[in-house]
Each structure stands twice: as structure tokens, then as C-alpha cells.
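Look at one such:
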Amino acid sequence: MDDTPQTGDRAQILVVEDESTDQLIINRVLSQDGHDAQICGTIAEAMAQLETTRFDLLIVDKNLKDGSGLELAKEVSKRNRDAEIIIISAYATLDSAIEAVRLSVGDFITKPFHVKDFSARVRRVLEHQSLRRHNRQLIDQLQKKNELLESLAVRDPLTGLFNHVHLKETVDQEIYRAKRNNNELSLIFIDLDKFKAINDTLGHPVGDKILKEFSQIITGDGGQPSFSLRADDIVGRYGGDEFVILLPNTDKAGATLKAEALRSVVEARALGITDAATITASIGVASYPEDGETRSALLNAADTAMYIAKEAGGNAIVSHVAEMQGKRQQSIEHAETAIERLKALKKTIQEKAFTYALQPIVDCQQDSVIGYEIFCRPSDDHFSNAAALFTTAERAGRIVELGRVIRLEFAKAVNEAPKNSYLFINIHPFELYDNELLTENPQLKQYAPRIVFEVTDTSAIRNVKRAKQSVQQLREMGFRIALDELGPEYGSLNKLLQIEPDFVKFNISLLEDVTPSSRAGRLVTHFFDCARSERISVIIAGVETEQQRKTAMSFGGRFLQGYLFARPCSQFKPVTPSLVVPAEPSE
């Protein structure tokens, strides 16, 4: 309740009156009525009093020595809307009365006044104030109760997150918005591993504590800087130990990275109990419109992916693919394959179960080798090639983790490489945002002058500004950067000029059936000239025949790569660019 004076309480009253006789009379009346009055004679004194004391009522003479009491009333109304004001005047005019009404003063009393009438009018003003305060309290209480009722309608009472009903409505709204604006939308479905067993054995209080702590993590209130949501992301409790995160304007790859950040935070933190490894999360990721164009389809896709993650042993992420929703037998077979690949991925990361192969990059003008691209060769039979390994890692949200292991292992090959040659190590665009890559890592930095980080799948670079910042940080540490799979279109040229790599790769297939004098040829030549003017070396990759080499060189190609010179092999071997070298079989 408000502690301000009510009817019958002692009111704090400031009297601003410059006539001493009137001061005495007013002070006596107020004291007899049980109020506390302070007397001052000027506007300046009144303003000083108002700085230190909050008054319930001001009784102000209209004509004061240093100004108009109406101006004082106007200033008081700005500062304290709760204070009542009574204007007194021996020289009342219609204009002054109208002005007082505009200021919403409580009363306008003319001098001379009758003591009893004065007392009664002061009492009525204070009673009106008390009633107004009481009404305001009732309105405030009603608003709080309405807010509580509204919150109960859309919020889960235990976690404070959106509840199941509101979450379903929100999914419908976000799908409609994504469809209308032609945007992407991703949904993360989370289930806490072994929660039921803990809830049954340790009791519901422990289970409730786990759910509350998880809700703090998922909303960013858990003090975990490695995981956070944007202002327009939506999170809710779907039921039991299941939670959903909606990510507007987010593709599946971005959502999977976000899910991995959450998974790693949960894995590292003890929720409600002391054993940090006991509570983990199984997470499924699905996106609109790729995996579902309706709420039920999208939720079902994410739930299916989550189930596969749980069947793989939990503490994992699975991105939904179309095969998971095929015919029952096909779906089961695909799920089993996905589970086995998830397990194989964990093993590959933990045991560094991969080897490497090398392919030279040659300088046709100097007849020499400038560097070697190093390729990953997974050892596990579940991955027939590197693409299968990286696809699984990307769908599991562990592409950054896999990349950390690979680049540290591959960097050691610098010591075996011929002197004065570069080692091109492939990295996924998401790795450009990995803090571990961008920090002063002594294990990696010692090789920096001879390492070129080759960014693959450049179409996945959405935030070019941020990528440029990362490239600048890497360059400051001594590394060089190459962009792979660029073409002559505007988007590639834009990334080239903004990110400013040291090398750019251009596939020979884009030059097939193109002559330098044709329109397409002039466009390619413009692209190459633009790169060279910015001191960016162009590498033409995929050169397999003598004719392709001639084509590349007709466009001014100097640095070439492809089977014509050597297939990827397990050792650094000398290469003569002018000759076709017998190739070691690909591993």
C-alpha cells in the first residue's frame, strides 16, 4: 500500500505567502487541524523547500514579491503531479481564475477569507487527494493482477518460459511471417537426457531445480557468454523436459551452430546436482520451408531429429534431412545410419581418426611449386570420403570442433613440406567466427607464416563484415587467407573486395567453352584483373588436361592446381609444372 497520507492523516503543507498576518492565520488553522505546515515568503524559498521535501499540498498566494504564484503552481505540477495546490489572492480576476482552472489547482480562495470556510476547503482538497490516491492504488493493483493473469495464460509457471499452447501459436505466426517475407526460420527441439531417471530417483524438487536452471541457461540468464539468444528469438517449454527455440531469419546451419553452443554449455555445467556429466541434451534442428511448411510438420521434423540424437547416446545434435521422413523402413534405415555416423564422428574427433593427402599448387611462369593443399582422409569406414565426414559434422553442429582438431594436426605437416612453400588448410566459413582460431594460439601461430587458411563453401559466408574482421585478425597473427569456389558473379566479386584475401581459387570449369574475347570471357578477365589490382593471387583449380592448362594460361592464369600436375598423395613430392607427372593413386 502507498504510505502517503490518507484522510485524517497529518498532511505536509507548504504555505507560500508574503503577508505576515496571513502567514500567522493560515499556520494557526492548519496546526489546529493537525497538519504540519512550513511557511515561506518567496518563490525562491519555496523552490528550495521543494528540493528537500515532498509536500501533499501547497497553499500559494497569487501575487508574490518575486513573481506569480501561478507560475510556481505550474512548476510544481511538472515536478509532482500528486501534490494538490490552492491559490489564494486578494486581487482575483476572471483571467487568473481561468488560468488556475487550466492548471487543475484544487481550489481558488479569495482574501479576506473566513477561517472555518478556509479550513473546510483545505479539508475537501485533501479528501479529494486521498480518494484519487486510493483509486490509483486500486488501478495499479488491477493492472498487476491482469498482468499476472496474462502471464499465466502464456507462461509456464515453473520456468517462466512460454508454455506449450502459446508456443504452438507463436510457431504458426513465425511461419506466416517467414512465408510472407520469404525468410528462413529454424526450430531447435531439446530434450534433457536421463531427466526422468533423475526426477524419479532424486525427487521432483531436484527435477524442478534442473528445469529452472536450464531455463536460465536457455534464456541467457545463466551467466554463460558462450550461449545467448537474440532479441527476436523465442524460447518455450514444450512439455516435461522438452524445450523449443525458434530462430527467425536463421538457416539450418546457423541454427545447428547455436544448438551446439547450447549443448556444450549444458554438458559443462552441473544442473541441480554435482555430477556435471549426468545431465546433457539431445537436440534436433529443422528449418522452414525445407523440412516443413506447417507447424506440425516443422515440429515433427525437429522432434524426429532429436530422437535420432537421443538414440545415438544423447548429448548430440542432429539436423533433419528429408530421408528421415520417408517410408517407415527407409526412415528407420536412415536413422540407424545417422546414429552410427554420429557415433563415428565422436570417435573421429576424440581419436583424431584421419590422415591427410597433399596436392601441389604450381607456378607455371616460374616452373615451381608455391604450396600444397592438404586434404582430410577419414579413417572410419562410416565416412567414404571427407565430404561425408564434414556433412555429418555440420548437421551435428560440430564442424567447428572437428575443424579445431584437423587444423592443429595438419599444421604440423609444415615441418615436412619443402621450404618456401605454403600449406593450404581448408576451413569452414563458420570457423572464421571461432574464438579459439582468432586468439593467440601458440601451437598454431608458430606455423603462421607458411599457413594459408582456405575458406571453403564461400556461399555460406552471410556476414561479410564479420568475416572481414576475422580475416584481419588472422592476418595480424601472420596467417594468409584464400577464398575457394569463387566465380565471376557480383556476389563473389563483392566478397573478394570486402574480405581482401591473399589468394582466390577459380575453377577451370567456369572457363570451359569461353574465349577471352567473348562477353563471358571479358567478365572473367575483369574479375581476374580486379583481383590482381588488389594484389590477390588467382589460383585456377581443377586443371586435368593440357587443353585446360592452355585455356587457363590464355586468361593470364599463372598459379594452377589439378590432376594434370599431381593427384593428392600422402607425401610431399617434387613436381615439374611443365610436365604431366605420373600420379599416385588417390587414397
